[in-house]
TrEMBL record:
Transmembrane segments: 362-380, 387-402, 408-427, 434-454, 466-484, 505-521, 569-593, 605-626
Biased composition (Low complexity): 22-39
Chain intervals for the UniProt region annotation (Disordered): 22-46
Protein name (record): Uncharacterized protein
Signal peptide per UniProt: none
One Pfam family named in its UniProt record: DUF5693
Organism of derivation: Deinococcus piscis
Keywords: Membrane, Transmembrane, Transmembrane helix
Length: 651
């Protein structure tokens, strides 16, 4: 039980007579990784299958490595984005300043805009342009009390001859033609102002002739008969709201799917749109990033630019959907800063060429052997192999079950939970073993990428299932290897009878709080918020370099400190578990498949470098502090002359 929380209570020591002797001072070690320094960690168990299973892992790395190479080649060819300006918002700003929208757009084009989002026209747009009149029956009756206008109806008339001919046969709702007040009207039972009437072809043709990338934004209305029949010839379509056009009617959705042609649908960040997965069958999509207009107004232009650059550089977004600020000056600052950050990241503004990543299924199946071998080796390396195999089997079933027994996703999760634990299950007696554990985690990275990266997951449509488990399961796997080689019932009795001091409770409380913070601060939006100062620091770091992950910068030093030796009791075991969180974070980083592989690798290596440097500094500092405490702390220790050692304890 020495390695599993060997608690000793000060209360119990007080009941015993302690005989001590003073020995000469030990020679001071020059390095914290001195092999002679005890780590107080349970010795790992060796399995006779260790070398064969490590060999299987090594062989299965070959197909995984090739798949990683293909993925990097694919992603390097996808480094173009379109900065797309919202045209209605642009027109509103231009009207406010008395400017022509196209002239203002040309000004913004010099600052990086190369695309425009144009919404489908509604009848209200026609009225605003002076093409039609839409009047309520009540208003017309007040104006013409002698006429037979109906108060509950709406009336539509041409302001420009021939306009209403475009609406013939468009809607399932049939208006009634009437002649009142000396004019021909269409009498509607509903307000037709918001009925979609097709694209503004004149505007779209003008934008295309000027070289802009046009994103068309159609509306859905069940009254439209020939849905999508008049969509313009543009490269991208971005649907509005939470549904694609025709999502509620399978026949209409099939008509939309057929009408899409070569147009690419946009995947709007943080917006789940019903019908989009069905619409995407057999085609790819473009990830599109936008900010809510109300939220954007609370941010400085530089902050907004940082988010757009981050989306393009690290999250695979190919369309950056920009809304102008209330003022032209703020908008110019946003666009200029965004262009600067995109250029710094090597991303070009051009028409994005969208393709799908199609990895080889045979190579992915061959890569499955690595995670299976790693999980089996963990089980066989437990002090109680039967328990280890049971744990490994349950982990395998759980990973597959979470992924609905889809083999690639399930085995990617197995790799994410097995490889962070494997190194510390097999080796944990000196600081050099941190490098071994990290090397095995890097091998796990290749397996996660090979098995998890596919057309849907790289677009963010197929999320990695079990992300929370990737941070918890490795801890459990390593903790299980701490168990002594004895009957589990005896272990439970020993733990139950083990005296616990107030200090033990405090240490365990702090450790649990730290693990909780590390777990809750996962993902882009965590359950634990960040301070304004940290948010500012994050922005500065991510604008300058690729920001490392918090769990790695904290976890790696904890592992090095735990492996460095010299710490008493159960501290090394707790610290090593913190280090497992750091290793797990490495694999978790690569579970975001929409992030380019090289970006994730850069983030990981920055975290490793910082963690390694901090770990060695921390280990030296702690060892120095302990020596100072032992030499000058007073009490039982003689100052400078020797070290007090407890030699015998008698009741």
């Amino acid at each position: 039980m020495r390695g599993l929380f060997p608690f000793v209570s000060a209360f119990h020591l007080a009941r015993y007579t302690v005989t001590v002797t003073v020995s000469p001072p030990r020679p001071r070690s020059s390095a914290p990784s001195d092999p002679s320094t005890p780590t107080h960690l349970p010795a790992p168990t060796r399995s006779r299958w260790q070398k064969p299973l490590l060999g299987v892992i090594g062989l299965s790395l070959l197909p995984a490595l090739w798949l990683a190479y293909e993925r990097v080649s694919f992603e390097q060819a996808q480094r173009t984005v379109a900065v797309v300006m919202d045209y209605p918002a642009l027109k509103s700003q231009a009207d406010q300043y008395g400017r022509d929208p196209l002239d203002l757009l040309a000004e913004y084009r010099a600052q990086g805009v190369n695309g425009v989002a144009v919404f489908e026209d509604v009848l209200g747009n026609w009225q605003n342009r002076g093409d039609v009149f839409v009047k309520s029956g009540a208003d017309l009756l007040e104006q013409y009390p002698q006429e037979a206008f109906q108060p509950g109806k709406f009336y539509l008339a041409e302001a420009r001859p021939g306009v209403l001919e475009r609406l013939e046969g468009r809607f399932s709702i049939q208006p009634r033609p009437v002649t009142l007040a000396g004019r021909e009207w269409q009498e509607w039972n509903i307000n037709p102002t918001y009925l979609p009437v097709g694209p503004d072809t004149a505007l779209i043709d003008t934008l295309k002739s000027q070289g802009y990338t046009v994103v068309y934004r159609p509306y859905d209305d069940p009254a439209v008969i020939n849905v999508a029949a008049d969509w313009p010839d543009v490269p991208f379509v971005a649907f509005n709201g939470t549904e694609v056009v025709g999502a509620r009617d399978p026949e209409r959705l099939e008509a939309v799917k057929a009408a899409m042609g070569s147009r690419i649908p946009a995947l709007i960040e943080a917006t789940t749109q019903k019908g989009l997965p069905e619409l995407m069958e057999g085609r790819s999509a473009a990830r599109m990033f936008s900010l809510n207009a109300q939220w954007q107004d609370t941010l400085l232009p530089e902050e907004t630019a940082s988010k757009y650059a981050l989306a393009a550089r690290e999250r695979g977004h190919r369309l950056l959907y920009v809304r102008p600020y209330p003022t032209i000056a703020e908008t110019s600052t946003l666009l200029t800063r965004t262009s600067e950050l995109l250029g710094r990241a090597g991303i070009q503004t051009a028409v994005p060429q969208i393709a799908s990543f199609e990895p080889s299924a045979a190579l992915r199946y061959a890569s499955m052997l690595g995670p299976l071998a790693a999980l089996l080796l963990i089980g066989l390396s437990y002090p109680l192999p039967r328990l280890g195999l049971l744990v490994a089997g349950l982990a395998l079933l759980g990973a597959l079950g979470l992924n609905r027994f889809e083999p690639f996703g399930g085995m990617a999760l197995v790799a994410s939970i097995a490889f962070p634990a494997l190194g510390f299950v097999l080796w944990r007696s000196r600081m050099a073993h941190w490098f071994t554990a990290t090397a095995l985690s890097l091998a796990g990275v290749l397996f996660v990428s090979a098995l998890g990266a596919g057309p849907q997951s790289m677009l963010g449509l197929e999320p990695f299932r079990g992300v929370g488990l990737t941070l918890i399961a490795p801890l459990a796997l390593v903790l299980g290897s701490y168990l002594p080689r004895q009957d589990l019932r005896q272990t439970a009795r020993d733990l139950y009878r083990r005296p616990i001091s107030t200090g033990d409770i405090v240490v365990m409380g702090v450790a649990l709080a730290a693990f909780a913070v590390m777990f809750l601060r996962r993902g882009n939006t965590s359950a634990v918020g960040v301070s304004d100062a940290e948010a500012k620091l994050r922005q500065e770091v991510q604008d300058s370099i690729i920001r490392p992950r918090f769990k790695e910068v904290l976890g790696h030093p904890l592992a090095l400190l735990g492996l460095g030796g010299g710490l008493p009791a159960y501290f090394p075991g707790l610290l090593l578990l913190g280090g497992v969180m750091g290793q797990a974070s490495i694999l978790n980083t690569f579970a975001h498949f929409h992030t380019p592989l090289l970006i994730s690798a850069t983030r990981m290596f920055i975290g490793l470098g910082l963690g390694l440097a901090l770990g060695y500094v921390l280990t030296y500092a702690v060892r120095w502090g302990l020596k100072v405490w032992q030499s000058y702390g007073g009490g039982l220790c003689e100052r400078g002359d020797g070290e007090v050692q407890v030699m015998e304890v008698r009741q």
